[in-house]
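Dissemination and training. As part of the outreach component of the grant, students in the summer workshop were shown how a complex can be specified as a set of sequence lines and then modelled as a single object. The example used during the hands-on session is reproduced here so that future cohorts can follow it. Participants entered these lines:
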Amino acid sequence: MSALATAVVSETETLFTAPGINYYAIAPILIIFGAAVVSVLVEAFVPRRARRPVQLVIVIGSVLAALAVVIDLRGTRLITGEGALAIDGPTLIMQGTLLIIALLAAFLMAERSIDPLGDAFAPRASALPGSEDEQEFTKRGYLQTEIWPFFLLALTGMLAFPAANDLLMMFVALEVMSLPLYLLAGMARRRRLLSQEAALKYFVLGAFSSAFFLYGVAMLYGFSGSVSLVAIADTLTAKPSEATLVAVGMAMLLVGLLFKVAAVPFHQWTPDVYQGAPTPITGFMAATVKIAAFGALLRVLYVGLGGMRWDWEPILWIIAALTMLVGSIIAITQTDIKRMLAYSSIAQAGFILIGVLAVSPAGLASALFYLIAYAFTTIGAFAVISMVRDASGEATHLSKWAGLSKKSPLVAAIFSLFMLALAGIPLTSGFVGKFGVFTAAIASGATWLVIIGVVASVIAAFFYVRVIVIMYFSDPTPDTASVVVPSAFTTIALAAAATVTIVLGIFPQPVIELVNQAGVFIR
Amino acid sequence: MTELMPAEGVFSLIWLLIALPLAGAVILLFGGRRTNAWGPYLGILTVGASAVIGILMLLGMMQNDPEQRTIGQTLFTWVFVGDFSADMAFQLDQLSIVFVLLITVVGTLIHIYSLGYMAHDPDKRKFFGYLNLFVAAMLLLVLANNYLLLYVGWEGVGLASYLLISFWQIKPSAAAAGKKAFIINRVGDVGLSLAIMLMFVTFGSVGFQDVFGVAGQASEGTLTAIGLLLLLAACGKSAQFPLQAWLLDAMEGPTPVSALIHAATMVTAGVYLIVRSNVIFTAAEWAAIAVIVVGMITIWMGAIIGSAKDDIKKSLAGSTMSQIGYMIMAAGLGPIGYVFAIFHLLMHGVFKAGLFLGAGSVMHGMNDNVNMRRYGALRPLMLITSTTFIICYLAIIGIPPFDGFFSKDDIIHASFERSPIIGVLAMLAAGLTGFYMTRMVAMTFFGKARWEDDVHPHESPKVMTIPLIILAIGATFGGLSLVYWGNIESWLEPVTGIETMELALPAWVFELTTLVLVIIGAVIGWMTYARREVPIEAPRGSWLTRAARKDLYGDAVNDVLVVQPTFYASRWLVWFDNKGVDGFVNGSAAFIGGLSGRLRHYQTGFIRSYALSMVGGAVLVVLALVLVRAS
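and obtained this result:
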């Protein structure tokens, strides 16, 4: 009897154990997720007048708390959640950067002084554009606070995306990140039709790419019997024969990820979405999605598919080259500054891919540095765009920037700084970033890719510098927009972005050491 | 190699020596008009404070043993790239302290003098800001403990010199002179930068201690190359042949600038560079011989130009070239000459500053006329100016006991020790010095008045005469005290090394011969320019005089050798740029622009076409991977 009991107990033990989760290691994700849940409850139960301050306290408080935990976790290297999440140096660096950028983006979203009608978001998303309801809501000065739960949920997904160590987790993170962003993109207060069109396009194409991703996951599962990146890597070394299945799965997976980083030919959503979305959201998404998606892409390529390096490298080389060239070339003829920056972000994705394709610790470190530098510069640039306005809202047509330096020398100077950084001019963060990825790629033998990268940089410099020329060497016209003086929110975000852009250009050493110490992905 | 002592006590303030005038410059130049009222005083105060610190350091250093007088202070690592590193670090030793004192003390006097001289200039504040900038850069130059930091100071003084020469840039001549000085100095600067690179390649470091410690291991060819490049740098900064042409034009700057930068301090930086690098020149004999040749040519060029110019400042500038030629030549003689080069540099800094400030004082009373042919008989009207000027004059021609006697005679002895030819040439040039300086004094203070009609000569205010008096006192007792009381030879010996002289004849023979030559020169000068009538219009003169009036055709030579070829090259490059490069660039820009216009049509705005392109891309990626995998 007793022997039987023992057998049952031991059998139970081996049959089922609680998943081993290191809650502290994933606390940043949990904090933001918890805050998102609370934020939803706030929408339901807190009176309308009090929602905005309460939401802001929740958002800023939770982001700072998560950031504190990330800093405290430095040096951690572990896999938790039954292999679902990897908390290692690169993850923590990306999570830290994401949280800081999210804080700056939250500041931009909270800005109320720029638009005389309120903030950048529609007072009620449900009201039809141009309807009487909408006018009524605007007149009453309604502010929408639903953006905050969406913001926190998207951030949850972003924090989990680069940490995801199995493909299922990665897919969940991808969707948690993307769905709120589709909604946020459609909530602009002005030019709402454009905004809603952007949201719809983003959603449809995003869902389309998710399908590719999921299909790729299924193929790889069929091949290896597991969704874990490590298990897939092991199976690849164990039986390298089943060529077609792996190749198709890998290709589908890459399509899904390359869509998110906006690589050519999966880039076409970018200009439409960047242009239509409310500018704070464009800045947020341009900076953070790039980081999160490159984090996931790096982990998939380096950890899961590292053994297939010789298969995926050639096609990614071509994609990287195309991404840089197409992004840079099309940007030249853009007349809308947001669209121009969208193409610029496509070209930048190509430059980061160069670092990824070095497939070396140096490549990883340089890509991380580039992402950090790019994120701060980008959010700063969109902060400036949100301030340059005329009677109809943001003045995004380049002709309205003519002679801006004479109206607002400081803002013109700061925007010039961001343009120079994106162009990769020395003494800005962009130069150090480009130098890093190019060096890493040359060390790995991809010299011709670097040559294309340099050519693309030259082409790209044209349209970045053209904005400076327009601002400084044209005379103001009656159409020239004016620069609105923002509240402390935007000022802080802008100052932080500009400071990081300069400091990373002049004293990059501490951050270079940080990304170098991050080491490689855990596996 | 001497050990570096940690910077303790007063020596922990080495950085402050530079920081004070630098802070002054920053406040004055960026403070704008708000600082107009008190700015000049702040400028004087910061340099004065540096002078006080410098004096305290000298006193502190004298209490230490000679082996413990080299003090190092490292602030932070300045450049760190791969194998290369350079610190923001200073080295204060017997050589640098001499320069620190010269720069800060003479600098303070000239600052004070400028208060009077520039009293009515609307840009007085800017002037003092530039002067402070110069003092800071010059101190950095002499305090740096590595060549790279020295180079920063070197460029800094070049910048300050450029800004101050063209201070009155509304005058086209002043603007052109500043530009000329800057461009000619670039040639020398290239030499210095190449020397630094060569040092890094050869020794793996640019720190003084590192380079001098291992200099002996390098091949003589390398050392000669480094030495010649350093000499090129010195020629640029110290206006030595063949880069001498800028100094005469530099007299377009305000007179205090000529005194401080173009006589007492900056132009002697070349001497400092050579003496500081003595280890290299001692090991590279041919480089040292080149130094002697350059110095000797310049001694004579300067003296001849000085004898022919009617512009009092340009005549003094010729004399400066000549005197620096003496120092450069002495520095080329090896350990025997280093000490005397510095000794003469110090003495020259004092009396030449006095002469320039005296000339400025005269100009002040003569409506800024610089033509000595319109001076004459000024002595009774400018007693203080003329007395101090004459004291400094006695010093420069080397009449005992004034200070030039000691330093110049030492150099002449040392050159005889090296070779009789060098000695004789140096000695004869001393006679020529006697001639042209007497000519200047006679034309200015004696003879008949040849003033223009509306000129009312008068003595300058006290703020200008007191610095003159102080400098004259220095010129009277400086040499005596440094030889008999200070003993400059043993003071500098740990840095420069020393060699005892073995002369074929007793020293007094040389001293007496030199003195006689000087007096002959002076008498000829006096007879020609004080006793006889000086024509207001300059006579045609001999071919040598005419050549000297044209700076011995220095500009013509530069024009033929450098300027014209550069013009032709630039014209050709412009042509090539317009036709070749621009054609290519504009062509590719047009191509890419067209491509861009074409590509953007694929951005239709229709979601279905976007999805189609994604599918197309996905199919290609899948196919590519399958093909790669299958192959």
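The CA atoms of residues 307 and 436 of chain B lie 5 Å apart. Students were then asked to discuss how this feature might be tested experimentally.
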